[in-house]
Amino acid sequence: MRIGIQLPTATPEQFQADVAAAKGADSLWTNQLPGGWDALLALGTVGGTQELGTSVIPTYPRHPAVLADQALTLQALSGGRFTLGIGPSHPQVITGQYGLPYTAPARHTREYLEVLRPLLRGEHVKHSGEFFTVDTALTIQADPPPVLIAALGPRMLEVARDLADGTIAVWIRPDTVSDYLVPRLHEGARVAAGVMVAVTNDPDGVREQFARETEPIGTLSAYRAILDRGGISSPADTLIAGSEEVVLREIQRFADAGLTDLVVAPLGDRPRVVDLVTSTARMLEP
C-alpha cells in the first residue's frame, strides 16, 4: 500500500514547508476547494520524484477538453508523475455556489470520461452527447495520466470500473474497502482513500471536536450514503486517532482490506503524523 499525504493550501510558504516535510511519502495530493487555490497550479510548483495527485477536481465547472489540456501540461512538466482525480462534487457547490445545473452526476461523469480519456491518449475526439459536443484534439506530448474518480455510490463505481483506473474515496473504514469498493471495481484497479489521522493521547477529545467541525458533511447526500453503507453515524467515526501503535494498527487494517493508496490528512501535530506514516507505515505487512 502506498502512503500519500494530503497537502492543505494555506500560504505559499506553508505549502512549500508541507511539501518539504512530506518528502518521505510516496505521493502528494491536494484538492480543489470552492474559492480556493487551483490544485493543478499548486502541484505544478512541486519538484522531486513523488507522484502528484488531485483528490479531487470537480467536473462540472471544467470542460473535459480544458481539463485534459491542463492535466497533460502538468504530466509533461512533472516528468510523468501526475494522477488525475476527478469527481462531480455536490449540488450545494455546483448549483448553490456556481449556479450550474447538477444534472445526472453518474451519466455526466461517464460522458465526461468518454471525452477526457481519449483526449489524454492523444486521440482526436468527435463527440455529440447529452452534455458535451466536442470536435478537437490536443498536441501536448505526454503519457496519459491515470484517472481516478470519486466514486461512492454503485452507479459511480460502475463508471469507475468501466472507464477509470480506480476510485478515490473518503469517509470510509477498512470494511467498506473490502466489502463494498473492491468487489465493484475491475481487477487491478487502484483503490485510494483519504483518511484523517491524529497522533494523540486524547482520542476521544479529538474525535468530539472533529465531530463538531464535520457535522455539515453528513447533510451531503453522497457522503451520507457512504457513511450509512459502512454503518457509520458520523465522519468522526472514520478518524484514526490515538497512540502511534493505534494509528499504525488502523493503517494496517486498510492495507489488509485491499486499499492500494492511503492518502493521509494529518490533524493536530502535523509533523509527527507525517513522520510516523511516511517512515513506518510502509514497512507494515502488505
From TrEMBL:
Record keywords: Oxidoreductase
Domain Luciferase-like: from-to ranges: 16-234
EC number of the protein: 1.-.-.-
GO molecular function: oxidoreductase activity, acting on paired donors, with incorporation or reduction of molecular oxygen
InterPro entries cross-referenced by the UniProt entry: F420-G6PD/mer, Lucif-like_OxRdtase_MSMEG_4879, Luciferase-like_dom, Luciferase-like_sf
Keyword Oxidoreductase annotated: yes
Database matches in PANTHER family: 5,10-METHYLENETETRAHYDROMETHANOPTERIN REDUCTASE (PTHR43244:SF1), PTHR43244
NCBIfam families membership: F420_MSMEG_4879
UniProt protein name: TIGR03564 family F420-dependent LLM class oxidoreductase
Source organism: Amycolatopsis pithecellobii
